[in-house]
Predict the 3D structure of the following.
Amino acid sequence: MKNSINNIWKDSSVLEKILYIYIAFIPFSDLGYLHFGTKRIGWTEFIFLGLFILWALEYVRGKIRLRKTLLEFPIVSMLVLFSASFFNSKNLLDSMIEMSGLIYLVMFFYLICTIISNQQKLQNLLNMVFISGTIIALAGLIIFAMALVTGETLNNLFLHYTKIESLAHCFPRIKFAFESPNMMLSYLHFVLIISIILFLLEKRGRRKFLIALSISILLLTSFLTGSRSFTGLLLSLLMVQLWFSKDRVVSFLKYLTIAGFIFFLIASIIKTIWIVFPLEIRKDNDKKLIELKADYAYSIHFIRPVASINMFKKHPLIGVGFGTYNRNFRDNIDWDWFRQSFDFNGYPNYLFLAEKKALNFDPHSVFLGALAETGLLGSLGLMCFFIGYAMLLAKGFTRSKEHGFQSIVCGCVLAGFIGFLLNGMILDILSLRHLWIMMAIGAAVFYIKERPLEC
């Protein structure tokens, strides 16, 4: 692995090296608490600033040029329709900061598409993601194992496990340096897709076996994050297997993945309902009856979707203002109704914060967040971008030769993208840097000529 990293580093331009550094630091981007008003812009953006300045100098000197991706209309439409929500914004500064964060990610997307100018550069990028992601997954497993051996699972810096968490989860959830296990899993989801691309491009040999071993490690670590988003990861894995596998061994894994996906999908739905409305089964021997009772929840997960829908009802066309969800949150919750309907005893601090109207949340859903903040127009722009990107990848997947370079990259990225969309029901995926990197890889492949790779 050391020789591989050294070879990639020596063969890469300065632009590529800065990009590798950025990617390597993504798992640590939540450390330092240096977000500038929004999670879209953090301390890793200093690395991006250097990348952008160098790219601009190369562009002015004519050594590099900006590429179109056939996504200009969907991207511009999304940004314009999001901007319409500014008319209802409670704080234009918040809205402008949030918009600047989104524009930054769009710029990052185009920079990567420009930097990946040939197949070998793409191979190098995939390898760097694969190596750094595998290291993070292994570190997560080691931390998990050490916590179990020492018995220090509660309040571990790298695990998400408290007394309240133990009510709903039977094992500590790995989060490493991420803000939450959900963020850890979304990163591993991205690395898994990249690893599968490398696996499918690789010829038979020891390296292919090592990639397969790494995929197993990624899947195990992803499972131990204990996140409902594991369902989206399994959906991506299933789609890749359906599109690219034909031998009997993989067919067995395919059926295993189908069973796992169905199980986790059902479990995710039940868990969500159970948290919001815990079910209680009672047996009445005298009446010979079994009663099923839905009690109020110990959790407050239900507050976010209720607040989002209330915001949407007030301003259905253009929303309450992009980036102002928290500022509108307190005014869109009937606290008396929540106090009567929900049990806050599981979270004793929340009742006080609720009564003082000091409780804040983000929407925890890219779709509900778009509806609340940008209304129907913004949601239309978001769907235009998502559908446009999916259609672009589908075109590349179906029109290229079977199991060719473009087919493999487009098919795997499309599978990953659809899995991320499913997880978008409970995550704000639009702010994930690694998702934009994955999307850039899928878009850049259209400008790369297929040739044998130098493995």
